[in-house]
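User: Here's a chain of 115 residues. Predict its fold as C-alpha cells.
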Amino acid sequence: VQLVEFGGGLVQPGGSLRLSCAASGFPFSSVTMRWYRQAPEKERVWVATIRSVGGSTDYADSVKGRFTISRDNAKNTVYLQMNSLKVEDTAVYLCHAYVDRVNYWGQGTQVTVSS
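Assistant: Prediction complete.
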C-alpha cells in the first residue's frame, strides 16, 4: 500500500488549495478514504471522509462548508479542495486508508496559511 500526497504550499488567508493523494497497492474503489491534519506540537485530527460505497462524505466542524473531499476511482486518487483558508488551517495534511485491518498513512503535504 502506498499513499502519496501533493499539492500543499503557502497561501494567503482566504485563498484556496487542492490537495491530491495518489493511492496504490489496494482496491482503491472499495476503500473509504480520509484526510487528517497535524499542526505543530498538536495531535493528528480527522478532517474529512469519503466512503467507498455511494461516495458519501463527512467533515469536521472546523472545515465544514469550506473543504470538499472527492475521489476519482479511475485514477486511484482522493482530493481535498480547501477554500476560504484560515491561519488555523496550517498543518501537515495526510491521507489515510484502512486496508486489511491496517492503518496506512501518506507522508503528508505541508499547508501554510499566512499573510
